[in-house]
User: Fold this.
Amino acid sequence: GENVEQHPSTLSVQEGDSAVIKCTYSDSASNYFPWYKQELGKRPQLIIDIRSNVGEKKDQRIAVTLNKTAKHFSLHITETQPEDSAVYFCAASKGNTPLVFGKGTRLSVIA
Amino acid sequence: DAGITQSPRHKVTETGTPVTLRCHQTENHRYMYWYRQDPGHGLRLIHYSYGVKDTDKGEVSDGYSVSRSKTEDFLLTLESATSSQTSVYFCAARGGLENTGELFFGEGSRLTVL
Assistant:
């Protein structure tokens, strides 16, 4: 089955700097790659997703890139703010199969 | 909140007792899932459902069973709780009317097994 690896497990950045989180997946048939943000004590919520027919997608300060050949995808957050501090999860799936999640990255933005 | 509610939100129980967690959704999602979240392990799939009375096992299904007798409700049962099942349990759903692929989560249920 699918296996998703996520790095780093923790990341600290200064406010205003950029943050990058990387994930690799094992199943070349996977075609849907979402990113979820989970604030302390809250439920995970989708922040951006990308499908296999697209190489990059942007939404204001966040962007996701996908390299199908290398089977990896990355989340980029620019101009980080304290409210970006949270745990971020990547995931992968194909069709309607269940999402398989990475183990998460705890991002701390230091003011 | 995408119309997904879980109950109970918090439960403390003793080893060996049965526990049932309930997930209720109001958006007619076809697919429903139970994940558990533990430090260092992220979100791991326990069981999922792809329709009424259609369920399948996930990565960490041992010690858990599920039932889905109607579209709105997905129950997770621990027949005899163990301390290793202390965790935060999230119900999730997708495949509603818009079917964007987005997975919506409930608020989570924190279970402590003493």
About this structure: DSSP finds no helices and eleven strands in chain B.
